[in-house]
Amino acid sequence: MAFDISRRFYEICHYVCFALVLCNVLYRHLFYIAVMLLCYVGVWIYKRSQNTWMDINGQGILITGCDTGFGFHAVERFHDLGYTIIAGVLNMESKGAQKLRKKKSKRLHIVKLDVTSDTDVMEAVKYIQSKRLGLWGVVSNAGINFPGDVELTTTDQFQKVAEVNLYGGIRVIKGCLPLVRRSKGRVVVISSARGLYSWPGESAYNITKHGIETMADCLRLEMRKFGVKVVVVQPGDFDGATSIMSPIQLERIKQEFGTMWENASDEVRSTYGKEYLDNMYQARSTKMIDITPVSPDPITDAIQQALFRSTPFSRYFVGGTDGYVDIVGVSSAVMLDTKCLLAYVGHKTTEHL
């Protein structure tokens, strides 16, 4: 108890000191801060006034992960707006792929594209070249979610998530860069709000989103000399607009939890208990039942801006149904440290132990 009180006293002192330092800095540099803010607002207003919709002259847009979710909705909207779309799907017989094929449009090309396959990526690029479409932009959208504590998640499971969310995006972007560079076009990376902060039980997923964010930031600087713009779209919680909580995905998560338990050491099993994973799964099952359908339009709007505006932002942060949580998480990661998150989730991470 004494240790707990002293720790809390230390944390209170930590935040008080931070607040005092921040106030001192703001007071001493108030003039310079005001000038910087005015300059920023001026630049923002100027860029917005010059930000027009571009004519890409019929060049194609490659979008990955179009079986469901954001990718599927983006294909439908951009095709309806008159753009030429190359829709990459994991399964050519999926419901999404079949629905897109029913459009029977010469401006809609559906290709098999498993982002973990070098062969699929090369074949997709060859297809675009053979059709002489030109490639204005690539939207790296394909991804999977994966819950689990670090101590329970196997190394193979970490690698599986990274192969899709991180290396899959890099693989597709690298394959398309020569064509996009030629058109001085766009690279759009669909990341996540979780790419900006940490969250318990989400390490495998968050690692990949932090990684793809860093890759995009580096690529943006590297591509500037070629006139290619790199944009990141960061959705918050849009589970109701995707298949991330579908029965198929829940069954996959259930199997992955089984793998965790089978590979856990005796010590880890005795520490956590099987009910810990059962409760995690049950929480997600309950969320699927209670989930409210959410329109994907805010994300599609951001992708549209990123692709077709003359001066897009480097990032589009789009809060979802957990917008408050995302804002708190991002703010704490940028301004303070992960201790702020403990005030919100700390008690929840131990209640089943």
TrEMBL record:
GO biological process terms held by the UniProt record: steroid metabolic process
Key words of the record: Membrane, Oxidoreductase, Transmembrane, Transmembrane helix
GO molecular function, one term: oxidoreductase activity
Database matches in InterPro entries: NAD(P)-bd_dom_sf, Sc_DH/Rdtase_CS, SDR_fam
PROSITE patterns hit by this protein: ADH_SHORT
KW Repressor (keyword) present: no
Keyword presence, Ribonucleoprotein: no
Pfam families on file: adh_short
Membrane-spanning parts: 29-46
Gene3D superfamilies registered for this protein in UniProt: NAD(P)-binding Rossmann-like Domain (3.40.50.720)
Protein name: D-beta-hydroxybutyrate dehydrogenase, mitochondrial
Species lineage: Eukaryota, Metazoa, Spiralia, Lophotrochozoa, Mollusca
